Model the fold of this input.
Amino acid sequence: MPSPIKFAHVVLRTARFDEMLEWWSGVLEADVRFANDFIAFLSFDDEHHRVAMISVPVEDQELGRSGVDHVAYTYAGIDDQFETYQRLKLQGIEPYWMIHHGGTLSAYYRDPDGNQVELQVDALTMEDTDTFMRSPVFAANPIGIPVDFDDLVARYEDGESEESILAYPLATA
Ligand SMILES: [Fe+2]
Done:
């Protein structure tokens, strides 16, 4: 059974967005690859983001406390990702969120303590994701487009190519 090929990133929630962005980019000597009022992506290597942060208003702290939102692991491709999705589903472990982020196709899970983990594959090269993250399409929607992994798996099993499965749904909408 496949394991991830790498640890990809951590995403933090914070009520001190600007201060945190300055701290993390300064400490890691990381570039801000994208930032708006509520989300920022930082990296220090060829990965499109190594740290991201989400601004959580103080009044929402009861709903989304400051701290780690999720960690992310990357699989080599959709063969491994879909095999993992199906293996976990048989064990009753199902994602609470499935989304195409543009640069990655991702399924989010909660562990028994409620920690959130993103299991993803890269949908684009790192260079193309960097370009995408500077595009108006990304600025208009830096979160992504919801998908259904059962639908994607069925399409893949019907013979659709990995490239087509990984295409951003917006491009065909
Ligand atoms: Fe993520």
Observations:
- The mean pLDDT is 93.
- The chain has one domain: 6-172.
